[in-house]
Amino acid sequence: MTELIRKTAAELAAQIHSGEVTAVEVAQAHLDRIAEVDGAVHAFLHVDTEGALAAARAVDEDVAAGRPVASPLAGVPLALKDVLTTRGVPTTVGSRMLEGWLPPYDATVTRRLREAGVVILGKTNMDEFAMGSSTENSAYGPTRNPWDLDRVPGGSGGGSSAALAAFEAPLAIGTDTGGSIRQPGAVTGTVGVKPTYGSVSRYGLVAFSSSLDQAGPCARTVLDAALLHEVIAGHDPLDSTSIDAPVPPVLAAAREGASGDLSGVRVGVVAQFGGEGYQPGVLRSFQNAVEQLRSLGAEVVEVSCPSFDYALPAYYLIAPSEASSNLARFDAMRYGIRVGDDGTHSAEEVMSLTREKGFGPEVKRRIMLGTYALSSGYYDAYYGSAQKVRTLIARDFDAAFATVDVLISPTTPTTAFKIGDRVGDPMAMYKADLCTIPSNLAGNAAMSVPCGQSDEDGLPVGLQIMAPALQDHRMYRVAAAYEVARDAALGGAPILSVPELSGAAR
Amino acid sequence: MPSISRDEVAHLARLARLAVTDDELDLFAGQLDVILQSVATVGDVAAADIPPTSHAVPLTNVFREDVVRPGLGQQQALASAPAAEEGRFRVPRILGEEA
């Protein structure tokens, strides 16, 4: 039974649909694994044992009755980031503010997963309101990186990335506002995809920065990510920024890429993402990946995107500005906690006391930063200028994609850092998202695929592949081809080198 | 361009409805100053002739047919309320002592 947890989603689906194993057995194997190791990893905030087993039973009934299964992933378990609403199942966004909240509705992503027969195991830990790069900002304690339990699993989606690396689930959902899918993927040696903005519905995704937030698939292989991508993507009338266009053919592209030929594909290395501030072992792993892409037939050139140097500062004005507005809805009146309602305090005082108690330090910092950037007198210098930088970044992407098919860079400048190392220094924490932010600001597709381990510390490194908007399939093709070459060179998938976990809580 | 003073941070906290403590004011004033000095570099390249981008995807108005769809019922809407009374959200008094 234990080998079930090491299988890919595609393998599990094939075995479930052929009747070789039941979805219930697969779900139970993962629930057992969670019970065994999550005391140490803390990837989950809530495990929905009954819901998972009920969903698995429904798939088994279809298979037993000879009915067609609901989707190619029917019966496969998944870990869902706690930022997406689940009807009747707690959704906290990693915040005290929503402790105990039972949403009255499913997010569109949740609904699509349920309709596809995907077995949702539970809700994963995250930085509060998805603000952070380490999952240390969760009000419920940090998640630990299965590669080294003293290190962070990235953030904000560290629960989802750790669940994959700890073999607690073969699939996960993340959300990426500035890198919260890709950076955790990189530091845990897993695959993380931020689809084109607007291609996965934001309905039921608790808003942080609405013009940047995008949900996407997380997995241990490129093919599994593509399978999940096709389940969750698509137009949704309930999201006003949802793109009404066909989902890019990412699954076909992943299969095509797996043939291992990238002849005719033009790959641009972003000149700005390297050098000072980058860990040498990360750059060496990245350089190895570049050479492998060349050996697969790709034409690799260097491309300059000078405005990318201003992406980080622009992001830390735009995202907090939108957050300060979005989080105004947590006013202690209709849902969430309420503090100080003792008859002596006015509604406004209760609001302020509740927000003081319900939000953690990073959320407060960003709300105040956004409030400042949007203030009259500062608006033009800060928010207005950041919006102009956003235009410059989109222009850099346009110019680059006129000459290359995809852009690549390291996903993050360093490997996983130690828990506690950056909590006191917000700017140091923010720099973890240096390479991932441009694609959020421009709205194009980007993903991280593992590219081995850094030679100085043995920790995973991520290769970021960026593609134009609605050309998500281009990066899947490159990623799948690279994955084959990487595994051939390393003698197996790097994720299989994760140390054995003991169950002890730390 | 900044620095931001402790009093300014206290003002921001009031605007943002955050009843921050004195210790937090000391901490946040220092941190926000560092962050603001770092992000102010956007001004170096934001020339007057560059149009701002608020959204990566061009936004157009979205319409739907004007037909009734099911929404949240009263009980569902109130189920997660911090306080409810007589089928409504119960809220603290609106006016402060000085009013």
Question: In CATH terms, what is the fold-level topology of the domain at 3-259 and 440-489 in chain A?
Answer: Amidase signature (AS) enzymes
How many beta-strand runs of chain B?
Answer: 2
Spatial order of the strands forming the largest sheet of chain B: 1-2
> How many helices of chain A in DSSP terms?
16
The major sheet of chain A is characterized as: 11 strands, mixed
Overall pLDDT score of chain A:
96
- Within CATH, the superfamily of the domain at 3-259 and 440-489 in chain A carries the name Amidase signature (AS) domain
Helical content of chain A, roughly?
A: 25-40%
Category by helix and strand content of chain A: alpha/beta
Number of helical segments of chain B?
3
Enumerate the spans of chain A where pLDDT stays under 50 for 5 or more consecutive residues.
Answer: none
Largest sheet of chain B: 2 strands, antiparallel
List low-pLDDT spans of chain B: none
The structural class of chain B is mainly alpha
Radius of gyration of chain B: 23 Å
**Shape, principal axes of CA atoms of chain B:** flat
List the helices and strands and how they pair.
The complex is a heterodimer of chains A (506) and B (99).
Chain A: H1 9-17, H2 23-41, E1 44-47, H3 49-65, E2 77-81, H4 108-115, E3 119-124, H5 158-165, E4 171-175, H6 182-188, E5 191-194, E6 215-219, H7 222-232, H8 250-257, E7 266-270, H9 280-295, E8 299-303, H10 311-326, H11 347-358, H12 361-373, H13 380-401, E9 406-410, H14 426-430, H15 437-442, E10 445-453, E11 460-467, H16 472-490
Helix pairs in contact in A: 2-3, 7-8, 8-16, 10-12, 10-13
Chain B: H1 6-15, H2 22-39, H3 74-79, E1 84-85, E2 88-89
Antiparallel strand pairs in B: 1-2
